[in-house]
Amino acid sequence: QVRLVESGGGLVQAGGSLRLSCAASGSFFSINTMGWYRQAPEKQRELVARITTSSGSTDYADSVKGRFAISRDNAKNTVYLQMNALKPEDTAVYYCNSLVSISGPTTLRYWGQGTQVTVSS
Known about the structure:
Helices cover about 0% and strands about 60% of the residues.
């Protein structure tokens, strides 16, 4: 079992910054990717940013490019999302996501419980 614990959400004014953290713990062989998704009310969950832990390669949603930055600390099994120049449309519940190798070729996807980010105008 793998547990993802998120922190760092909150209320911020437009133009402000927040930093989200997600720490993975439990029994696994390795973490392949870690990332952040978000879901606003009455909208589908969407990818915000994702990082491959071995190479450090990243993917971002077009809507956050140039404003958000994802990074990882492999020693701590932790991923961070630095969010700058926040806009009201960034308001959503942000979920940590990880693709984990359990053993051999077996990989499983895990989700955190979500953290609320609210950007006021």
